[in-house]
Each structure stands twice: as C-alpha cells, then as structure tokens.
Give the backbone structure.
Amino acid sequence: MPLFKRNPFGHILWIKKWLIRILGVISHGRYRRFNELQIEGSEILRQIPEQNVLFISNHQTYFADVAAMFHVFNASLKGRVDNIKNIGYIWQPKLNVYYVAAGETMRAGILPKIFAYTGSVSIDRTWRSAGKNVNRQVKMSDISNIGKALDDGWVVTFPQGTTTAFKPIRRGTAHIIKTFKPVVVPIVIDGFRRSFDKKGLQIKKRNVLQSMIIKEPLEIDYENENIDSIVEKIQYAIEQHPSFLKVLTPAQIKEQEELNEKRKFWS
C-alpha cells in the first residue's frame, strides 16, 4: 500500500488502519470478557460482494454497536464462524467499511472525531438537531457521500436514526436503496443498551449477553417496489415493526418500561 493512499473521503489508509487496530484491541474485551457477544449468521458476510452493500440495523448506543460490527465483519472475513476469538483478525482490517452517523455526534469532541476517521459518513439529520426537533431539507451532498461509500465498499446505517426502540423507519433509507440499488443485509442487535451507556463508551453492567444476528440479504425489486413497501420490509427485517412489541422477552419489556419512565421524567 502506498504510504499516503487515501479513500474516497481523503482519509489516509495507513492512519485509518492503525486507528482500527488500536480501537479494536481496546474494545475487544467489551465483547469477550466483561460481556459476551453471541453471533449468528456471520458466514453470510463471506458470500456478499466487496462493494455496494448496505447493512441496516436497529440501534442501541452511539458507538458500541458499530464497534461490535467492525469486530464481527473482520473476524468473519478471516475465517471465524460466529465468534470474535483471537483478535489477530484486526491486524489487517477491511478498510472499505463505513457507517452513517449524525454529523453533530461525530464532531462533539476529540474521541468522536477519531472514531469518524475510521469510517464515518457524517450527515446532517433533517428531523433533529442539538436535541431539538427540526424540519429541513435533505442535503444532496449527504446522499452523494453515501453513494460514494457504497461505490467503495460496505456501509452500515441505522434507518430509525435514533437509539430508541420501535421508532419509525426514516424514508430516506428506502430512497437510498431505490437510488443506489445495493445488496441490503439486515442486522438485529440486542443487549447493548443494557451493557453500555447511551454513547456506548462506558460499561454500565457486566455479564450481559449481547447478540448480533446477521440475516440473508433482502429481496427488493428496485425498479417497481415503492418506498412504503421497502420501509415495511426494513421494519420487519430489523425487528422494529410494531407487531414485534407483542413478542418481547421479559428483559426487553423491563427495558422498554425503564425507557418510558425516563421519557416521562424528562418530558
């Protein structure tokens, strides 16, 4: 690799590689020692293309979810089956992995800026800014940057745009799918909200079973399927459709009740 080879966003790849190595070593114990990460379906990652893949997932913390995905992606590509044992896989990480994140989050301090260098595609949210509801136009540069990332590799997005469970799917994700026609791979995560704080930086509770299920790519008719149909498919695929509220585990019900109490307190 040339010393100053850059990705499409101008990031120097050897710097990105070393940041992923260092952060990978620091974060590995959070999924192997303090808490266990149970993985299903990681073999799917070795069957999908190198570029134009969009991962859609529910969201529970700002950073811990994405960090876990970096571990699982790289471990699987190095031959691990549903595990992240032996952190040697992080020495040569996949460098064309990106994730969509709110620009204000990734600019809020030194650490988020470091995280952003590892693969953030930062966008300005159209519905929320500085903790307040807003209503503004989509920036076309944000859409083109997501397309640029898809052209280069894999992109992770959280179509609800929030860490709160069972919030509506943002229609922008469906528009991106219609526009760029990526392979769409759903991921369902659980346990991260119980084990980490909201930012995903501090361990809140130990001995929590975290889970990550990687599902088969969605079947989508890019030309003829409408936005509403794609939104509904996303809801079911990442298990955030209202019907899933009826089949929550006792732990998930308790978690939802705690979240509701917090909202009442702060409202």
Q: What stands out?
A: The CA atoms of residues 74 and 93 lie 6 Å apart. The beta strands are 36-40, 53-57, 97-102, 120-123, 128-129, 132-133, 154-157, 183-190, 209-214.
